[in-house]
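Holo prediction — fructose -6-phosphate.
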Amino acid sequence: MCGIIAYRGKRTNAGELVLLGLKKLEYRGYDSWGVAVKEESRVKNQESRIFVCKKTGKIGELELKKLKLPAGQLAMAHSRWATHGGVTQRNAHPHASCQNRVVVIHNGIIENYLPLKKKLMKKGHTFISETDTEVAAHLVEENLKKYKGKVSREVFQTAVRKALNELKGRYAFLFMCKDSDVLIAARRGSPLIVGIGEDSEYFVASDIPAFLEYTNRVMYLDDEEMITIGDQHGFMNIQTGKPIEKRVITIHLKAEEAEKGKFEHFMLKEIMEQKETIHRAINQDEKLLKKVAKAITQAFGTYFVGCGTAGKVCMAAEYFFSNIAKMHVNSVFGSEFSSFQHFIKKGSLMIAISQSGETADTLEALEAGQKKGARLLTIVNVEGSSMDRMADLSVHLNAGPEKAVASTKATTAQLALTLLLAYCAAGKLNEGRKVLVEAASQINDMLNPRYEEHILKLAQQIKNVESMYVIGRGVNYPMALEAAIKLQEVSYIHAEGFAGGELKHGPIALISKGTPCIVLVSNDDTREDVLSNAMEIKARGGFIIGVAPKREEVFDYWIRVPDVGSASPIVNIIPVQILAYQLAVLRKNDPDMPRNLAKSVTVK
Ligand code: F6R
């Protein structure tokens, strides 16, 4: 979580540049933000300073315009998703050491900050925030204590490295020192990418779109690595101090893809992009697909692992493989994996599904599986992400940047690719392609303004309800869970998903007159039964919203979806995405940055 960006180069508006870049990372966290600029010293021999400004809330356009930043060629900025310490200006990053000599920005969690803080306080350090981060600034300052005035690149680097070796936990760090012109970045578990501009110009950020308008040439920091950036750069291992050589990679991503364009919100733009993204997800190299399918059919147990929405796609994979390939695969949420790791051995296969490729719980599950000898396979959207790079085999969703916190186009791309893999494992790749190409073309027809208007009418009708429910059977059960997540996270209406058959075992007690209940229907052998469940709800006063290929008598409101056979979970979730978006807008919520959430969950 948390967005971080830094710049070092010839431009003198470094502060402004990092703040504009930070706006593009706000989806990673938006509780508070801050910037640090190494001020240009106007008078010769005058002591240099680091200017720091921090605020709570999202970065407002107006606020940015009004902000008076000093000129400087070195700056860094941070947008926070609070973990340790409330959302206050004090707890916002950057954090400085006592003498403002060292300033840091951090994404992650320092697990041993309390004993370190106590130790430093005994040595006379005064802490002003409740965060775990501040300890890093004081630690580096302590290591620089014996050096007065300007410090060399090596001295600063050694002080930072020594401090990092005392910290336990996951992090991406940026360090600046008022007595040095060098920027230091370090990584253990949270993403950091270095952008190489023209003329010794460097960018460091948690995601590429933050600096994509300046450069598409990047180097990835791996775990346990740090980079020191002066006029030149040098990578080294944090533990050993040994230098590391890195390859520069050119990224083929267009800056416009990460912009809203004509849409009011990223969420709507990304919903509409599903006209193309399904095609892009299934347009894979046949050899790669067959290799993955073979890995699944030959594995000694396959475990699909993911979190949140991606976790629901993992559940859907169980149904796809069972129905199509007649195979058993397991699905586990990343955060629950530790209880199942005992079953992993050499020959087991783990398949991580993730949009970002950075989710800490999923990464930790993969690391645990890797230690036990499992083969790792990933299905990710972000190329070059941690999961992408740690996998033995990786398949990309090719959905383009997904910026809205609520996942939409990445979800359907994950569903499409997983379904295609099930067909491939059954030796029916061409049949799978045909089903999905047909579904993609039907989605193209479905996503038109009239369709949106029809769903808007429903949103207007139910916008003030307290609770709503979603039911489905078969593969529509994980889709009901996913539908509930979508409704919860952007509309803030209490929503829950259930397996249709489970309702009568308890949850049906929640239904009263007018309670909206979405029923996900596919034209398959679950149809009759789920319609009976809808009847049971209706008999208790529930308001039945049918998402189905055909109008059924039990529906009070019908949202048509095309009949696309086994791809039906993909088309069924789309109207719920639209409904969630419209409810959010009608309820005056920000659908792109819902409260308490962040796009990339890099903490446990
Ligand atoms: C909800 C949503 C989240 C993510 C989850 C995993 O709309 O997007 O539940 O699915 O945080 O994220 P990734 O896919 O990046 O691993």
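READOUT: The longest helix spans residues 568-586.
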